[in-house]
Amino acid sequence: MRARCPVCGLVFEREPGYFTGAMYASYFIGLFVTLPAWLWLLLAGAPFGTIAGAAFVLVGLVTPAAFHYSRVAWMQIDAYFNPMTFADDAGE
Ligand SMILES: [Zn+2]
Question: CA 80, CA 8: separation in Å to the nearest integer?
């Protein structure tokens, strides 16, 4: 992951451990991407092992994208609630 945005110079890791909160976003991305599949399997009467296995595989497939987009989502939330901490960043 880059330290700064190559276009505007925004520092991505705002402070040590900044992206710890992105785990929450990652959790919800994984949940909502896999929810239709395991809900469908559950309603179709599939055994627990099949549902758990399908969820495990789907989460594995989604993880690379979730890793990046959860960080994007986390920074968007931070920028929304703390806009001033982003104001003096660009062009340093
Ligand atoms: Zn940028």
Answer: 18
Mean pLDDT check: name the lowest of 74-78, 79-83, 88-92.
88-92
- 86 C-alpha vs ligand 1 centroid, how far in Å? 11
Residue 61 has φ and ψ, to the nearest 5°, of: -70, -35
The residue count of the chain comes to 92
Distance 16 CA to ligand 1 centre (A): 20
In this prediction, residues 52-63 reach a mean pLDDT of: 91
Whether the pLDDT of residue 91 is over 60: the answer is no
Q: Are 55 and 37 in contact (CB under 8 A)?
A: yes
d(CA 41, CA 23): 26
- In the predicted structure, residue 67 carries a pLDDT above the cut 70: yes
Cα angle 31, 46, 35; round to 5: 15
